[in-house]
């Protein structure tokens, strides 16, 4: 029995056994296409359809949205999403495609939208039938989110939106966007308002989505142009001018405060499915050759791999502390810390994998001689997006230093 399972309440223990039994009987078939490392890199309709079918099946079985009220499409349980996530991770299932919807849009809509809008949007978000994206960053407003300039002008009970969002993951498939807009140019923070916007229905008539090609050769990121897009005032979340406060709900969950309702990539190996953890690095080192012997036999590499495993286990235990109210002495400390460390640990693990691969690390996807199908190389290049997303590592350290530790502001 795992440590988490040993502390389950009776309801959680019963639900855990249900999840375990259902997952054993309903594991999805292997995909017929190569899956990307994470849902943020989904490029094709074939990839999306496979993953959407899996999320829909899990939702119908009660493994998604567990802790939300039944009135908005949830399971009506208490602290059971964590249990479902743990069991899906243990079963090495695929990830869910609607990662932004589940991790950021759902809590934001739930806490700030009108009841009718919650009931309309959340069930299809949980099921994965509607994919969501996030419209925060702009060409001139990346780390300084409060400087966004995409503007919404009120016309009666409508708003007309004009502007430019960038680094918008999954916008090429998204039905809906959570969107931070400026509604008053005279106030930096109080001039922001938060909306949910149906962008798919407006493609070509107010919304343009342009893919951005990453260093990996893949898409996933996009830029989104708004040109006189008209939306109803009912799509506004919370009060006019309260956009910054609503955005903090989104960022709190983006940086790991809540149970991100999608497990990390499971162990599907078919067509390139991959796990970028320290334990999978150790497995890789057992088969990768360096100087005529397994890389795992190199004592220096062995020591560095164990250090990565220790860091990863420590990070996992730190995440558990976020569920203990008495340890939340500062509302953002653990969340910021876990986001910062998690992204950097993943990057360091992938970088070490390239050292394990040696000279063959220069081979990439599509080369039949690329170790592990080129997936570690892909993971390393993708890792830079994670140390930038939700605030760069430098920004995270500044916030931790200035707002948590009380250090003087950096110049």
Poorly predicted regions are 255-273
Secondary-structure element pattern, one letter each: HHHHHHEEEEEEEEHHEEHHHH
Which secondary-structure class do the elements indicate? Answer: alpha+beta
What strand order characterises the main sheet? 1-4-5-8
Calculate Rg over CA atoms.
22 Å
Helix count, DSSP H or I runs of 4 or more residues: 12
* Count of strand segments: 10
Provide the CATH topology of one domain: Butyryl-CoA Dehydrogenase, subunit A, domain 3
Strand percent estimate? 5-15%
Give the proportion of residues in helices.
40-55%
CATH architecture of one domain: Up-down Bundle
CATH class of one domain: Mainly Alpha
Measured between the Cα atoms of the first and last residue, the distance is: 51 Å
Task: Supply the key terms.
four-stranded antiparallel sheet, about 400 residues, single chain, 12 helices, Butyryl-Coa Dehydrogenase, subunit A, domain 1, Butyryl-CoA Dehydrogenase, subunit A, domain 3, 10 strands
């Amino acid at each position: 029995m795992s440590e988490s399972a040993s502390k389950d309440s009776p309801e959680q223990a019963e639900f855990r056994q249900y999840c375990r039994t259902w997952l054993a009987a309903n594991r999805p078939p292997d995909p017929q296409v190569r899956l990307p490392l994470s849902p943020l890199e989904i490029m094709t309709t074939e990839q999306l359809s496979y993953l959407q079918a899996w999320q829909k099946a899990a939702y119908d079985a009660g493994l998604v949205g567990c802790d939300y009220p039944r009135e908005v499409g949830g399971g009506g349980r208490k602290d059971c999403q964590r249990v479902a996530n743990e069991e899906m991770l243990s079963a090495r299932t695929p990830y869910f495609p609607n990662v932004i919807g589940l991790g950021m849009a759902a809590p934001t809509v739930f806490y700030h939208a009108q009841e009718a809008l919650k009931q309309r949007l959340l069930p299809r978000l949980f099921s994965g039938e509607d994919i969501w994206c996030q419209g925060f960053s702009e060409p001139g407003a990346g780390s300084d989110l409060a400087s966004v300039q995409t503007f919404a002008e009120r016309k009666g009970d409508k708003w007309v939106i004009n502007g430019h969002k960038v680094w918008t993951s999954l916008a090429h498939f998204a039905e809906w966007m959570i969107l931070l807009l400026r509604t008053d140019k005279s106030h930096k923070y109080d001039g922001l308002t938060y909306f949910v916007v149906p962008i798919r229905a407006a493609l070509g008539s107010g919304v343009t989505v342009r893919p951005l090609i990453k260093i990996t050769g893949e898409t996933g990121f996009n830029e989104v142009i708004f040109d006189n897009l008209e939306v109803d005032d009912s799509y506004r979340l919370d009060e006019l001018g309260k956009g910054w406060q609503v955005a903090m709900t989104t960022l709190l969950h983006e940086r790991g405060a809540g149970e991100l309702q999608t497990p990390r990539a499971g162990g599907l190996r078919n067509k390139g499915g991959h796990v970028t953890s320290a334990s999978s690095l150790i497995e890789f080192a057992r088969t990768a050759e360096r100087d005529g012997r397994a890389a795992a036999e190199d004592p220096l590499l062995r020591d560095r791999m164990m250090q990565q495993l220790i860091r990863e286990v420590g990070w996992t235990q730190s995440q558990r502390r976020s569920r203990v109210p008495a340890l939340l002495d500062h509302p953002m400390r653990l969340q910021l810390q876990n986001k910062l460390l998690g992204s950097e640990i993943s990057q360091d693990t992938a970088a070490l994998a390239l050292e394990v691969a040696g000279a063959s690390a220069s081979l990439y996807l599509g080369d039949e001689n690329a170790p592990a199908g080129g997936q570690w190389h892909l993971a390393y290049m993708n890792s830079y997006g994670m140390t930038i997303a939700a605030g760069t590592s430098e920004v995270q350290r500044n916030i931790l230093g200035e707002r948590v530790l009380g250090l003087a502001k950096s110049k």
